[in-house]
Amino acid sequence: QLQLVESGGGLVQPGGSLRLSCAAFGSTLDYFAIGWFRQAPGKEREGVSCISSSDGSAYYVDSVKGRFTISRDNAKNTVYLQMNSLRPEDTAVYSCAAVIRTSYCSRLVLNKFPSWGQGTQVPVSS
C-alpha cells in the first residue's frame, strides 16, 4: 500500500526558500501523479501544484506560478516542491497526495486523490 511522507518544512522568513520532499513507500511512484496541497489556519485546503506520471507535466495554482517548482525523481521515489520568494500568505500545512488519473492532477481536484501524507508545516514569518 502506498504511503507518502513529507519533509522539509520549517520556519522561513518572507522572501526565503524551502524545498519540500514527498517520499513514497510501499509502491513505486512511476504510475502516480503527485499533487501538493496546503491548508492555512482557518481556511480550506487548496491545491498548489501537481506533476503528472506520464510526461512530467507540471501544473500550478496562479498564486504560486513563477515562485514554486515541482519536480520528481522516480529513481528516488520522491517528488519535490521548491518554494522561492515565500510570502506570509504561503503559511500553511503542506501535504502531498497521489492519484492515478492525470485529469485530476491538472485540475488539482483534491477530493479525487486517495492517498495522502501527514503534512509538514511551513510558517512564513519574520
Helix residue percentage: under 10%
What is the radius of gyration computed over CA atoms, rounded to a whole number of angstroms?
13 Å
Q: Looking at the structure, what is the overall shape?
A: globular
Strand content: 35-45%
Please outline the major beta sheet.
Answer: 6 strands, antiparallel
Number of helices: 1
The overall pLDDT, averaged over residues, is 95
What is the β-strand count? 10
- Oligomer kind: single chain
- Series of H and E elements: EEEEEEEEHEE
How far apart are the termini?
A: 40 Å
Structural class, please? mainly beta
The unreliable regions are none
What does this structure look like?
- The radius of gyration is 13 Å and the shape is globular.
- The strands form two sheets. Strands 3, 4, 5, 8, 9 and 10 form a six-stranded antiparallel β-sheet that branches.
- It is built from one helix and ten strands, in the order ββββββββαββ.
- Helices cover 4% and strands 43% of the residues.
- The longest helix has 5 residues, at 102-106.
- Strand 6 and strand 7 (78-83) form a beta hairpin.
- The mean pLDDT is 95.
- By secondary structure, the chain is mainly β.
Feature tags:
126 residues; mainly beta; four-stranded antiparallel β-sheet; 1 helix; 10 strands; globular
Note the topology:
Elements lengths: L2 E5 L10 E8 L7 E7 L6 E6 L6 E3 L7 E6 L4 E6 L8 E8 L2 H5 L8 E2 L3 E3 L4
Antiparallel strand pairs: 1-2, 2-7, 3-4, 3-8, 4-5, 6-7, 8-9, 8-10
